[in-house]
Write a structure and sequence with these properties.
Helices cover 29% and strands 40% of the residues. The protein has 205 residues and is an alpha+beta fold. Helix 1 crosses helix 4.
Length: 205
């Protein structure tokens, strides 16, 4: 009986220790992101994605839709190109936005397929994460030529916090926005960009 009580007590201490570590890690990640925001200039009007939808098809296995997505840096150059098919009849892009120190930071976070205009939450989880395409070696490459290493590292800290790369709390500072691409015509190019207030817009090129 005593041995069992000691074991339960030790489990309780271990749980408490892990909880304290988790809270401290969350606080440090937030402070790191907040401090990083001071190293960056005011918000920019930035193009994030260029899109071309090839079309959709239906088979016994279900619907598929294909397209190409180019991730763009602040100089208008391509960082990465993603060309593939997704399960679903339509495509959508999810963005993460965070407000730190009076500045809005926006990051493309996920592309996913859906089978209805109003999608189910589980459909989002089947998409692909975009963070890995513009974050590399501790730098956020959304900042293009002319940016400094310290600025790219600062934006990296904010991006991993905002996009939820790690399973930490965002303290209600992050918002998720979805751009529905069901209205995009096939074989035409579109662009998604944001203004200084973090508002996202899609336009045909």
């Amino acid at each position: 009986m005593k041995t069992e009580n000691v074991f339960i007590r030790m489990l309780g201490y271990l749980f408490l220790l892990l909880l304290v570590f988790y809270i401290v890690a969350n606080a440090l990640l937030y402070l790191s992101s907040f401090n990083a925001s001071h190293q960056l200039s005011e918000n920019l009007n930035q193009e994030f994605l260029r899109i071309k939808i090839y079309g959709s098809s239906t088979s016994a296995e279900g619907n598929t839709v294909s397209g190409t997505f180019s991730i763009i840096d602040t100089n208008g150059n391509e960082i990465a190109v993603i060309e593939r098919s997704w399960s679903g009849a339509y495509l959508a892009v999810e963005f993460a936005q965070i407000n730190l120190n009076g500045r809005y930071f926006v990051f493309p976070s996920r592309i996913y397929g859906k089978n209805r205009i109003i999608e189910e939450r589980k459909e989002r989880k089947k998409g692909i994460s975009l963070e890995k395409y513009y974050n590399d070696y501790g730098q956020c490459m959304l900042l293009g030529y002319g940016s400094s290493l310290s600025e790219r590292k600062a934006l990296y800290k904010i991006s991993v916090f905002a996009t939820g790369k790690y399973p930490f709390l965002t303290f209600g500072l992050t918002s998720r926005y979805t751009i529905d691409l069901s209205g995009c015509k096939t074989d035409r190019y579109y662009t998604i960009s944001s203004d200084k207030k973090g508002n996202l817009v899609i336009n045909e090129l």
